[in-house]
Design a protein that fits this description.
Order of helices and strands of chain B: EEHHHHHHHHH
Helix content of chain A: over 70%
CATH superfamily of the largest domain in chain B: MetI-like
Main location (chain A): membrane
CATH topology of chain A: MetI-like fold
Strand content of chain A: under 5%
CATH architecture of the largest domain in chain B: Orthogonal Bundle
Number of helices of chain B: 9
Number of domains of chain A: 1
Order of helices and strands of chain A: HHHHHHHHHHH
Structural class of chain B: mainly alpha
Strand content of chain B: under 5%
Oligomer: heterodimer
Structural class of chain A: mainly alpha
Family (chain A): Belongs to the binding-protein-dependent transport system permease family.
Strand order of the largest sheet of chain B: 1-2
Distance between the termini of chain B: 66 Å
Membrane topology (chain A): Multi-pass membrane protein
CATH class of the largest domain in chain B: Mainly Alpha
GO molecular function (chain A): ABC-type phosphonate transporter activity
Largest interface: A-B, 56 and 48 residues
Number of helices of chain A: 11
Radius of gyration of chain B: 27 Å
Shape of chain A: flat
Distance between the termini of chain A: 58 Å
Number of domains of chain B: 2
Subcellular location (chain A): Cell membrane
CATH architecture of chain A: Orthogonal Bundle
Largest sheet of chain A: none
Helix content of chain B: over 70%
Radius of gyration of chain A: 27 Å
CATH superfamily of chain A: MetI-like
Chain lengths: 278, 232
Amino acid sequence: MKLTEEALSEQRQQDALAGRWRRLPLIQSPLLRLTLLVGLVTYLILALSSVEVNWARVAEGAGRGLEFLAAFTRPDFISRWDDIWAGLLESLTMTVTSTVIGVALAVPVGLGAARNIAPMPVYWVCRGIIAVSRTFQEVIIAILFVVMFGFGPFAGMITLAFATIGFMAKLLAEDIEDLDERQVEAVRATGAGWWQTLNHAVQPQVMPRLIGLSMYRLDINFRESAVIGIVGAGGIGATLNTSINRYEYDTSAAVLLIIIAIVLLSEYSSSFVRRWTQ
Amino acid sequence: MPVSTSPQGQPQWRLRTTKAQWLGYLAWLAGISLFLLCWKVISDNTMWVFVEDAGRQGTDLISRMLPPEWTYAHQLWLPMWDTLNIATLGTALGIMMAFPVAFLAARNTTPHPLIRSLALTIIVSSRSINSLIWAMLLVTILGPGVLAGIIAIALRSIGFVGKLLYEAIEEIHPTPVEAIAATGASRMQVMSYGVLPQVLPAFAGISVYRWDINIRESTVLGLVGAGVLVCS
């Protein structure tokens, strides 16, 4: 017998009065609930059984793990300071240049990818650029560019700029698509051309968000610059990779602490800038 | 209101005041100088010889990639299954750890401000270090394999899920919480009947979003030996 909605809620009310209230289940049908549960458990068993753990290796590595944790209590900034400083400088310069270049290229792409101001063919081309730039992981792009441009920060900079284009252009285009149409119409009604509309109606509306996003991207680019060094694209990641491979955990701990400190700093300053622009 | 006076003594509207205009110019000057300085450092550290033959190297790489060798594909099923497992199990583990951390970090549910700052530290340090770096560390500790990948993904997910979830918890409506508390519910009951139903939709959304990111991230973990897809 299938109970109607009303009868069900009546039933629940009676139960509640009798002190037998229970929460509504997330999924109504009990059969579906059971199937999902069984499926989940099967997947977990299958997945967990395919994870091979070499316990002897883990036991051997556990000592090294403790050593690494201990290194955080005595990070060694001094003995490799020259390498750390060189890596840090490379990372920071890479972050700044890639963000500037990326944002500068992302603005036209973002304008083209906004459906309400760009004609259809331009729209599809720009959406295509965004999709290509967003599909691949930074690390994979970095491998490609390291092959093309050789080791060093130049490849890293191009990688980060490339990734920035997709990120910024997509968010900028979405922001332009839901801006306030009335202001655009008001400016257009004064007889303004396309550029003037853009400059006096669109730009003031999206500028605070554009600045906020650029600051956020600066933050992301620094974090990513620490990673792409692993595949040879320069920066602090290369220093970190070397120090881990040489088991110099004190230095690695120092590098990680520096990364955390800079990320924290940039996070606070970017939230400050965002509050100031809005 | 930014107004200037024309030679005839007529007030004219302008976009900015003189002071704002000059500050703008100065900001641009500082920004461009910084960019040029950074560019100089990078160009000093670059071997331009390698950059010049970039086109040739690129076409070489792409010509060797095309056409893709599909006969190799059947060897990829196992690594793909492992990659999916790394992402899923890592996300599950990360969510489990992030859930209590988020409740400790949210201003309205934390038991003590000191615990709150501790939880925030956990979130920040997990967020600032990429899963690839976590994997690199874990591979030296646990040895290469899927397990290191799972834990690396989990450690990175704590920060992401924890941050978004604690922001969601801080934005809940206080009225249902007060209503539940007024019935004489204990602290845990308030959490479970007042707070949890309000954040569950956000929690589900965040988890799926992170799972999506993790699938993409787990493919590159093989580079440092934690997982399989890129090394094979």
